[in-house]
Amino acid sequence: MCGRYTLRTPPERLAQVFGVEGPLPEWSGPSYNVAPSQRVLAVVGADGGRRFEHLRWGLAPAWSKDPSSGPINARSETVAEKPSFRSAFRSRRALIPADGYYEWKRVGKGPKQPYLFTLAGGEPFAFAGLWERWGEGEEELRTAALLTTEPNAVAREVHDRMPVILPREAYDLWLDPDAEKEELLALLAPYPAREMEAYPVSTHVNSPKNNDPECVRPV
């Protein structure tokens, strides 16, 4: 699964990378420890273009009785059929900007060791995401989940799953409301291992209350 990530890239740079020409998102500084239930930045399709939007991480389908929590990840292998995700997969897909993500590895009998995964060079990237609406009017809640897939060779050393990282040339297709299911499923593959890096970081990141450079410090 993917349960924490970083977004340290300024909004002006994100707008360039993701081709967003509208208003820039609110910016309160770098995020070193984005966690479930928090408000996360997303890029969604809008009138033939793209716009930034904030969504709560934890997907709540429209029919959910309790929107206070929901799955943070969706498995690529079942996303097109599972009731919680299939409607969003059909028509509400999003790019979730990030520039790193964390996974934890069991080392002996001690506490799990966190690792930070990035693209080589540290460039921002996009998780394949889904989003949903719950409620109406002033009570409307918009939520999101990240898709996961089999790990590549780098991720496999730490965890048996990894988030779907989309190549830039796939952004248009992922946001295309008319894309065919088979085309979309073909995108949900492990990112090339040769283009990724990973290193162990401080257990400071274990607490979602911590959001500072110590989270990404190599150990």
UniProtKB/TrEMBL annotation:
Coiled coil: none annotated. Keywords: Covalent protein-DNA linkage, DNA damage, DNA-binding, Hydrolase, Lyase, Plasmid, Protease. Its EC number is 3.4.-.-. GO terms for biological process: protein-DNA covalent cross-linking repair; proteolysis. GO terms for molecular function: lyase activity; peptidase activity; single-stranded DNA binding. It is an enzyme of class 3 (hydrolase). InterPro entries: SRAP (IPR003738), SRAP-like (IPR036590). Belongs to the SOS response-associated peptidase family. This is Abasic site processing protein.
